[in-house]
């Protein structure tokens, strides 16, 4: 028979550990363009209390899934003609080994063949005609609507899509995502707002993450003390129950 106090303390320690891992990832990527802050979802206390009242399970915190905060980051000017920021909603589409990838990391460059690829991973940027290819050495002009011109000739238009349910996203690198459910419908964004020569910075606040880290470390300590106290009480109870010689 398992001890409920031990279970609650153990679950609290595991939940704190998962949150610390998430926060460390956020802090490390605070300067990564397009990176989206991540956290973990825990079942709320009312749900656990209801389950406990029905005697279905021990009342304890549970980590259910990661949560991605898609709030936009600040725009930073780079001056590079192949760097692009999205103003408002939407995601760039890139060709990845698993299929379509989605990102707001607008750092792109032109390879030797003239293909526009992401700086992170080297994935081709997708336009309305497929992977975008420009004449090598060209200096593209990108309109706010995503049209790419070379020498005043429209070569292609950058594909920007809208994902109606952010929960459908599965993180690949924190700034690159893929769709976990293939049945989710992805719609093209007809009127995106693109800004050439800028990139979107990470939406992570290092100060907030450090403050959260302090709070979680204290909760972790409380759960450790809970387990230690329970262990001590059980040890004393065992000693008291032993027959005297």
Please describe what this structure looks like.
This protein is an alpha+beta fold and 245 residues long. The protein has two domains: 104 residues; 126 residues, no CATH class. Helices cover 29% and strands 27% of the residues. The chain contains three helices and 19 strands. The protein has a six-stranded antiparallel beta sheet, with no helix packed on it. The chain has a three-stranded antiparallel beta sheet with strand order 11-12-13, with no helix packed on it. A hairpin with a 5-residue loop joins strand 7 and strand 8. Helix 1 runs antiparallel to helix 3. The radius of gyration is 25 Å and the shape is elongated.
